[in-house]
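Sample A.
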Amino acid sequence: MKSVFTKPVAHFIPLAEGVNATTLSLLSLEELAEVVCRCKEAEAQRIYHTNPDVIVREIGDQWVLVPTGNLAQQFNGMISLNIFSHFVWQQFEKPHKAADVLQAARTQFDDPEHMLDVQVRKLISDFARMGLFLKNE
């Protein structure tokens, strides 16, 4: 019998302060599990907000992020959002911890495949890397 296909997902986990990337491969399984938990917790405590150089336009049943100003010069594109990613975007219109947005998403959406946390973390990471979300320092 074949396995059920699930969407492939990979999520970059930024290292927490004090974690050395060169020694990760030398850790025992238990030590690595502890480091992963610590890094995920540090990631969840980061505060992000939307980049003010991005405007949102609703077109039918989707939303489009349009970069303006300097971001438009370096971005060279637009982002189409579905209802879930638009929800996440709206949460970060005011500065929020990633953990608070995760909790808000859990209360707003059913998650039968148990992928909500990974998808929200990935969306935050991707948007931050593209300059759409900014970290509060």
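Sample B, a different protein:
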Amino acid sequence: MKEPITNIFKEEFNPAFLFTWKGRRTRDEIYYHAHDHLEIAFILSGCGRYRIDGELYDVEEGDLLILNPHVLHQGLVKSEENPATEFFVGAAELWLQGFAENTLPTPDDGPILHTQGELRQKIFRLCTSMESEKTADWEGRYFMMKAYMMQLLLLVLKTRMEPEEITDGRSFESVNKKYVVEQILDYFEDHYAEKISLDRIAGNMYLSPFYISRIFKSEVGDTPIRHLINIRLEKAMELMQSGFSGSIQEVAARVGYEDAYHFSKLFKKRYGYPPSQVKRKKSSDLL
């Protein structure tokens, strides 16, 4: 392992933020290319392969690629069943003492930093924050994304500026899963009345439906679809008990079902009696 580096910062640390990009690697990059700026790629999930300066490197969830200026690189597909979901950040105007412009120090064994534990968790959260801020519509968006990028660069530099701490990588796996499940639960609560498909949710999160179903069940104890059904039925019960005067068809539509008969079957299976009985009881209570 290389000795920790020191005196790396010049008087000002103020790199320029260039871009972010998030996507799933489903085909090989066409061009073997290089840039004048710094590019960092973090593997959010799955696995892949990179050709970097003539060498092939396999990458997987938690790996961070440091693609310094003029370093030739090309993203490749390793597994069609479990493709890599990658998050790229571009930076420029980076000057560090003892390094060329826009250059970050790399690990001993090449341009890939294999993260684990708390470091991996922090990088995952920064990437997620940048992706979220990218869609925000306000004038400070650039500066917020730049702030997250600077934290990312400093975390990478910190690995070379102090002894490496050995941690258990399982902590990241747990946090990563919990975060994904929390996002799905929030989405269900906000959009239960809309048409929802597991494929759509998986596509929005750049994950496979199978992976989402597996981690959701491991965290919640039920499948995403059954959990969504329960939310809809609970909302329907609350709606009818609040005195809603609409028909069963309207109740069904309010909670995301076009077919009132299908809704009634699900409701009866859950509560042991049809929704019409709830409405009749509520009406008699008001007399």
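Observation for Sample B: The two ends are 81 Å apart (CA to CA).
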